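The record is given unchanged here:
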Amino acid sequence: MHLLVAYDVSDDTNRRRVYRTLQRYGAWKQYSVFELEISKTDRVELVDELDAAIDPEDGDRVKLYRLCGSCESETTTLGAEEPDDQSNVI
């Protein structure tokens, strides 16, 4: 399954933990945004890991959007090239 994951995490330590978790599963596309191609089993594990890495009381949140095949073909990218891992500020 293809997922788009966006996150908003206030604490630097938690944000790094979320980033590193997502990096193991997919590709960093934009600040706080990842694209993943994972199995249903991996998705369950990912959700558990992300849930443990954030603090909802601080306003942290992560959203996972499942992208269907027709949705992917309708994706439009504007602007600069996608960043490489070396340009991340984390």
